[in-house]
Queue: 3 jobs
Job 1
Amino acid sequence: MIDLDYFSVSDPVCTLRIRESNVKHAVWKTSGETEVIQNNLNPKWIKNFRVWIIFIQDMDLHFQVYNYNSHDSRELIGEVEISLSQIMLATGQQMKLSLTLPHNK
């Protein structure tokens, strides 16, 4: 994870947005946010996300990790998008993914 703080280490927080897969004009909806982990480049959040699913419908998951600053501002550290079906088909229903920055940054 990238360190965006000058005098300490980043304070990461993770957000999740979801939308229906393969649905034209589907809208991203905010699903939740973790707690802020102070001074940590390898955070292990305690808060988890709960997503209600319809068995026959796939969902896109968009995770964004921010550096939380004391002035209620955030800097994007990175993001990743994946479908719920990809996670469900993975061994142990777990995956390790790398965060990337958007191309327009």
Job 2
Amino acid sequence: MRFVLVAVYIIVSVSGLFMMKLGGEMHFGLLNNRLAIDVGLQNVLGILLYGVSFILYLAILPKFDLSYIFPLCTGIVYVLIVVFSRLVLKEAISAVQMAGIVLVLVGIVIMNFKAK
């Protein structure tokens, strides 16, 4: 069950980041001496999703060793962001990013080997 929570965290985190990216720029300023924030619906949804991912992360932390779960979640989120940025946003992936993805994935695999 705790790995389901991790999977949901990863999905919600990546979704929140993508919604904020798709929402474009947010504008802050003063209007009639009051703070005005101009945000689109995608930005609001992204902020909400990313906020939920933070709450999920707080629920995950006590269930795992920090030295295990932080690199695991961060690595998987990083890899998914790069892959989906390429597929959805048509962003270029450099050779350095590809090498980084490979190193992150290798690191995740090595972390999961149990010492005998």
Job 3
Amino acid sequence: MPGNSIDIIGIALKVNPMASINTKDGQQKDKREITICDDSECAISVTLWGELCLIEVVEGELVALKNTRVTEWNGRSLNSSN
């Protein structure tokens, strides 16, 4: 459900390069989008924000994230900034 926080674990299928975006309030934030898949073969997009963008994520490796926020963006996606 959107707004809930969940813990996730899966394999990184796709890792996009880090990018900077301008927010509505005029700030600049770093973000990196990755796609992960679990053993049910379901995939979901996860957006990493701030310092989490600096963590090296390699395609094919296991990824575990705590407190990812479920959001509605192009379907369902997850956001992690802690």
